[in-house]
Amino acid sequence: MTTPTRTSSSARVPRTPRASAAGASAGARNAKSAAAPARDARRTTAETAGTSPRGGLVSARISLGRVFASESSNYFLLLGITLFLVVFGLVMVLSASSVDSISTDSVFNTFWTQGIYAAIGIPIMLLASRIRQTWWKRLAWPALIVGCMLQVLVVFTPLGGGNSQNRNWLSIGNIQFQPSEIIKMAIILWLGMFVALKWDKLTQWRYMLAPVLIVTGTAIALVLGGQDLGTVMIIAAIVFGALFIAGVPFRQLFVVLVIVSAVAYVFVATNTSRLERVTAFLHPQGVDPEKEGYQTLQGTWALAAGGVFGVGLGNSRSKWKWLPEADSDFIFGVIGEELGLIGAIVVLGLFVALAVVLIRIIRASDDPFQRVVTAAVMVWLVGQALVNIGVVLGLLPPLGVPLPFISHGGTALLSSLFAIGVVLSFTRTAPQKNPSTATLR
Question: Which residue range is the domain that position 109 belongs to?
Fold first, then answer.
């Protein structure tokens, strides 16, 4: 009798058809998963090399993503507001200058000139936004020295020129520009560099306030030599604002304010034309509407004629030789007349939005250089806009300062766009948190 043989534990058990099918399916999935990385690698290589039909589009999308990968929301907000102001300014310059332009050459003459400066200034702004902070610090002293040397040429050589009120233009061949605009930006960079360098001695006036007053006072004196009181007041406001945001004690800033006020009083009192304008502002009832009060009165009438909705773009009557400087210093009057109260509020809202974004950038970093430079740029652009609008509204005497990004003026537009480019370069870097700078206002 044969004894049944016991199956060894190591013997292989035959698979059922279902088990065999499941194993084959799992094996196929594993093989597919193993082949996926190789296939993706080949696809990436093909797209990068451009052999895939979609390679160029994917590569462009990846490159564009890398370009804007480090940009913050503040970057896009500041860039968007600035570009909108520039485009809006081109439209208003075309409208406000059309009458004067057609009487000399073409209705588009002034517009094309402003458009060329915008086409140059926007790439400069974008290029400046890619430059690192260390280069701005290195540029501070050379820029200030060059700006002052050019201003010396304006004041003391035949190359300088201007109108009966100011001497603020430098003419070299067919090129004309205002060195005072270079001085504005140079002072801003220098203030940021100096505050960052002397941060530990911020409250000691002999190490902080005294050098600042000597250096910036020299530059301001050169601009004052050209009789440009409006630009001098803007530069003085820039210095005051930078020192305030840096945290210089109020008692020291009060002394600076008294000194600046005294100098401004002497400068106005010794100039007949400026004294008449200030007197006309303080006593409007006794002003001759055809002399001292003419420009302010025409600006007020232009705003009143616009009403709530305006007379329509291009339909201003005041630009027909009634409103002086309709495309530059008093362009806000044309805006109010053609676009009405709504248009005027939109312009004010844009500059308020610009101030809000710049404040956000200031609060995003504790680096002294970034905060001081950004604050100074804010005081410059937003403060100058408020001064220009205040003059048109009759809240300030005529000072001859343009409306940033909107008024006609190539040098002013280039310098303003460059300043925005410098601030944009700060938004592309991560905020630098430093406990030692926590006392910045």
Answer: 71-429
